[in-house]
Amino acid sequence: DADVTQTPRNRITKTGKRIMLECSQTKGHDRMYWYRQDPGLGLRLIYYSFDVKDINKGEISDGYSVSRQAQAKFSLSLESAIPNQTALYFCATSDGPIRGSNEQFFGPGTRLTVL
Amino acid sequence: DQQVKQNSPSLSVQEGRISILNCDYTNSMFDYFLWYKKYPAEGPTFLISISSIKDKNEDGRFTVFLNKSAKHLSLHIVPSQPGDSAVYFCAASGDNTDKLIFGTGTRLQVFP
């Protein structure tokens, strides 16, 4: 079984709809992250959480919100989806600071299309 | 404003030869650098990292070189294997944060 899972894997929705992307992990990590990948732009950080009570904005948080329901679950919401939020979304987890050789483990991604 | 740049979108190398993937950065506050590999339909996986106090880090067939004065790092894969065919992202972090700034990726194809 995968350590970091994302649901759904693919989603097509319409402009203005509310969408939730879910991430679950069985690695027991405290830190969780949400990224989006766009063609030609690499991955960009949306939100990150160092524990259940700690939520931080990343580079591109506008239009998104998150919820850390438990250590193992971190959800990303698009309150009112717009076409330029069409992208590949990745969740990641880590056990500590990256400088301490704590790599980030990524889920398989969710491909979201907003029409 | 792309702070981490991978100017070669693709690279094709023969099996057994060396693959060299390049990455440039503009922010002098970056002090930790990583390479990730990504296969289709999968998330990125960590490959190798280097701190700014070093200029080289090696792990098996993979070596990362850092040239701080040029704000340039490179990933060398020797010898290249067909299973290395993937998209490679470099990433950087600074200011003692956990935020990673990713490059745009280079698609490596290793052919027999």
Plain-language structure description:
The complex is a heterodimer of chains A (115) and B (112). Helices cover 0% and strands 57% of the residues of chain A. Chain A has no helices and eleven strands. Chain A has strands spanning 4-7, 10-13, 19-25, 31-38, 42-51, 54-57, 64-70, 73-78, 87-94, 105-106, 110-114. In chain A, the strands form two sheets. In chain A, strands 2, 4, 5, 6, 9, 10 and 11 form a seven-stranded mixed β-sheet that branches. A four-stranded antiparallel β-sheet of chain A has the order 1-3-8-7, with no helix packed on it. The termini of chain A are far apart. Chain B has 112 residues and is mainly beta. Chain B is built from no helices and eleven strands. Chain B has strands at 4-5, 10-14, 19-25, 30-38, 45-51, 56-59, 62-67, 72-77, 86-94, 101-102, 106-111. In chain B, the strands form two sheets. In chain B, strands 2, 4, 5, 9, 10 and 11 form a six-stranded mixed β-sheet that branches. In chain B, strands 1-3-8-7-6 form a five-stranded antiparallel β-sheet, with no helix packed on it. At the A-B interface, strand 5, strand 9 and strand 10 of A face strand 5, strand 9 and strand 10 of B.
Looking at this protein, list some descriptive labels:
A: mainly beta; seven-stranded mixed sheet; four-stranded antiparallel sheet; 11 strands; 57% strand; globular; B: 112 residues; mainly beta; six-stranded mixed sheet; 56% strand
